[in-house]
C-alpha cells in the first residue's frame, strides 16, 4: 500500500483568492503534487490518505483575512479541513500502517505530518467500534463536540426547560436537539423545508420543528405557538433574523449560545453583519448571550465522545450525514450546499470510499 | 407641619401621550390636586412631601407601551420617579412625621401611600448619617445599586482586569468606575466632553477616560491606546456605536454588562434600535453579554449600601450630583439633559430644598 501511494498523485484544493460573499470557482485552485514515498519520511513523520472530509460553515470564516479564533488560511495554502484518513506510511512508533485517524487533513488526497507539526495536536486514532467514519466527523467529531459543550457547558439546560436550536437538521443542530431531549428538555428545532422538519420530529424526537421557509411569519408564529412559556436556551447556528425573532421570546434568565451565524457569513463585507436589534431583550429578561469555540474543550473531548458513543450504541442518538462523492475536485461546489441550506445532515465529502 | 401640608396644592406631572423619539412638552401635563389633610388618612397610610427626585434614563422606557421589566406608565398617570421625601403625616406605626424616606414618589410634590400600596415595597427610611439626600439618590440609591450588582455580580471583575464603562461621569458610571478601582482593576471611562473626562480621571481616579465627542475616531483610537490587552469587563450604559467599538477590543472571556442603551432610547420606533453588528466577537473571544435589572437584587441592597457608605465615609468613593432647581414644573425640560448628555453627574430635581 505504501508503494502504490508513493506512485500516485496528491490532488489538492488551494485558496487562490479571498471571496467577497459566496465563494466562487475563482477563489480555488486545484493543484497536483507527487505523494512522497514511504522511504522519504523522516523519523516521527506520518503519511495519511484521506477517506472523508468534513465540510463546515466555519470554513467560510477561515477564508477571510483578519484576526479570529484561528489564523486564516493563507493564499496558495491547501484549504484547511478536518477529516478521517488511513495511515499509509509511518515512521512514528504510535501509528501503524492501516490505523484510522481523525486529523486536520486539509482538502487533499494525502496529508503528510511532520514530527513537530502543529496539526499533530488534533490528530488521534479513531475506534470504529464507537461509530462509522462519517459519524466520527459528525456526532463523535467537531459538530458533536460543539453540540455537547455548547449546550451543556454554555447553555446549561435544566430538565423541563424549552430549548430552541436553529440549523436543527444540520450537523451541530441534530446532536444539540437529541442531547437536550436526553437531558429532559422540551426541544423546538428551526430548519428549512418540510422534509428536514419532519425528520427531526419523527426520527430524532424533537417536540416541534419550525420550517423557516414556510412563509414570512413562520418563525414568529412558530415560536409563539411552540414556546408558550418562552425560550430558556437558544442554541444559535444561524444569526440574522431568526436570532432577532428568538430574542423577542426569551424566558427570564435565558441563555443564548452563539455557535455560529451562517446567515451572515457570506455578506459582502465584515461590517455588513446584521446585529441583533432586539438585543435589549437581554436586559428586560436578565438573559445572556455567550460565544463558544469548541477547541477550548479539547482536553474534555474523551468525556464527550464516551457519552455520545453510548447514546449511539443504545439507539437514543441518531445521526444523519449527507455524503457527497467525487473527491477533492468537487469540494468548491459541495461547500456551497451549506450556505444554500441544501445539505440534509452533516455534510461530508467522500475522498476515498 | 401637617396642617400647612393639608392646606396646600399638590402639583403633578402626568404622562399626556407617548413620545416618538425625544419627549416633548406635548407629552406632559401639569395637574394640581388638593393635598389630603392628615385627618383624611386611613390606618396604615402615609403622606410624604417630595424633597428631591431622581431623573433616570430608564424613565424614557417607562413612557413606551409594551412589555418590559415593569409596566409602562399609563396615559394620565403621574410620571413614575424615585425620590427622597419627608413624612408629613402618618397613620403607620413604623413612620413618624419628620422621617426621611426613599420611595417611588412620582413626579409630584406630595405622595400618599395606602396601607397595601404596591409602591410600599420600595419605601424605606434613609439614614442621613450615611449620606446626603442626593447621595441617597445616587451612590446609595438605584444608580449605586445598579453599579454595585451589575459590576460585581454580572461583570465579575478580577484584580488586574481592564474595566471599561460608558456614561462614565453619569450616575451609574461614576460608581462603577470607582468601585472597579477599589477592587484593583484598571478603569477606562468613556464620557462626552473634556470636563467630564478630566473629572473622572483627576477626581475619581480612573486610569483614563475617552472623550467620545473628540472626533469621529476618538473612541476607536482611545480604546486601542488605553486597552492594549483588550477589555475584560465592559459596563454598557449607552449601546449603539460605542458598544460596537468595544466589541472589537474584547479580551478572551470578556463580560459585557448590558445595563442600558441611552443612545437608542429615543429612536423613532422600537425596531430602529441598532443591533451590535460586531456581536460575533462574542464567539471569537468566548465572551458573554448579559442583561441586568437592579430590582432583582432588592433583598441585597442593605449589603451594597453598607459597603458603599463605608467608601463614602473613608473618602475612597466620591459622588457628584447635578441638581436642577425649579420644582416639578421644570421636569420635562430637566429630563432632556440626560439624552443630550448635558448633565454632569447624577441628575436630580430639587422639589423642596
From TrEMBL, chains A, B:
<dbReference type="InterPro" id="IPR036291">
    <property type="entry name" value="NAD(P)-bd_dom_sf"/>
</dbReference>
<dbReference type="InterPro" id="IPR011032">
    <property type="entry name" value="GroES-like_sf"/>
</dbReference>
<dbReference type="InterPro" id="IPR020843">
    <property type="entry name" value="ER"/>
</dbReference>
<dbReference type="InterPro" id="IPR013149">
    <property type="entry name" value="ADH-like_C"/>
</dbReference>
<keyword id="KW-0560">Oxidoreductase</keyword>
<dbReference type="InterPro" id="IPR045010">
    <property type="entry name" value="MDR_fam"/>
</dbReference>
<dbReference type="InterPro" id="IPR041694">
    <property type="entry name" value="ADH_N_2"/>
</dbReference>
<dbReference type="Pfam" id="PF00107">
    <property type="entry name" value="ADH_zinc_N"/>
</dbReference>
<dbReference type="Pfam" id="PF16884">
    <property type="entry name" value="ADH_N_2"/>
</dbReference>
<protein>
    <submittedName>
        <fullName>NADP-dependent oxidoreductase</fullName>
    </submittedName>
</protein>
<feature type="domain" description="Enoyl reductase (ER)">
    <location>
        <begin position="21"/>
        <end position="349"/>
    </location>
</feature>
<dbReference type="GO" id="GO:0016628">
    <property type="term" value="F:oxidoreductase activity, acting on the CH-CH group of donors, NAD or NADP as acceptor"/>
</dbReference>
Amino acid at each position: 500500500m505504501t508503494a502504490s501511494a508513493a506512485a500516485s498523485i496528491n490532488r489538492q484544493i488551494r485558496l487562490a483568492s479571498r471571496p467577497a460573499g459566496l465563494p466562487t470557482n475563482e477563489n480555488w485552485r486545484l493543484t497536483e503534487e507527487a505523494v512522497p514515498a514511504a522511504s522519504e519520511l523522516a523519523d516521527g513523520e506520518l503519511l495519511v490518505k484521506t477517506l472523508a472530509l468534513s465540510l463546515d460553515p466555519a470554513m467560510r470564516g477561515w477564508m477571510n483575512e483578519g484576526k479570529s479564533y484561528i489564523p486564516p488560511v493563507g493564499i496558495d495554502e491547501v484549504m484547511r479541513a478536518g477529516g478521517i484518513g488511513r495511515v499509509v506510511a509511518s515512521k512514528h512508533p504510535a501509528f501503524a500502517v492501516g490505523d484510522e485517524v481523525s486529523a486536520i487533513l486539509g482538502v487533499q488526497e494525502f496529508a503528510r505530518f511532520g514530527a513537530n507539526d502543529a496539526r499533530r495536536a488534533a490528530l488521534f486514532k479513531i475506534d470504529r467500534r464507537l461509530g462509522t467514519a462519517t459519524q466520527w466527523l459528525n456526532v463523535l467529531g467537531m459538530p458533536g463536540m460543539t453540540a455537547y459543550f455548547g449546550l451543556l457547558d454554555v447553555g446549561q439546560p435544566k430538565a423541563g426547560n424549552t430549548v430552541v436550536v436553529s440549523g436543527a437538521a444540520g450537523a451541530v443542530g441534530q446532536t444539540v436537539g437529541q442531547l437536550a431531549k436526553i437531558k429532559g428538555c422540551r426541544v423546538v428545532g428551526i430548519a428549512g423545508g418540510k422534509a428536514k422538519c419532519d425528520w427531526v420530529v419523527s426520527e430524532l424526537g424533537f417536540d416541534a420543528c419550525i420550517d423557516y421557509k414556510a412563509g414570512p411569519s413562520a418563525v414568529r408564529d412558530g415560536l409563539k405557538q411552540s414556546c408558550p412559556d418562552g425560550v430558556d436556551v437558544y442554541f444559535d447556528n444561524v444569526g440574522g433574523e431568526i436570532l432577532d425573532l428568538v430574542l423577542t421570546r426569551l424566558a427570564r434568565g435565558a441563555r443564548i449560545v452563539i455557535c455560529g451565524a451562517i446567515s451572515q457569513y457570506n455578506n459582502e463585507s465584515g461590517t455588513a453583519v446584521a446585529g441583533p436589534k432586539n438585543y435589549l431583550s437581554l436586559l428586560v429578561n436578565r438573559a445572556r448571550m455567550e460565544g463558544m469555540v469548541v477547541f477550548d474543550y479539547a482536553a474534555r473531548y474523551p468525556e464527550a465522545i464516551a457519552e455520545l458513543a453510548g447514546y449511539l450504541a443504545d439507539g437514543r442518538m441518531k445521526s444523519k450525514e449527507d455524503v457527497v462523492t467525487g473527491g477533492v475536485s468537487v469540494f468548491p461546489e459541495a461547500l456551497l450546499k451549506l450556505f444554500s441550506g441544501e445539505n440534509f445532515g452533516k455534510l461530508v465529502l467522500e475522498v476515498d470510499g
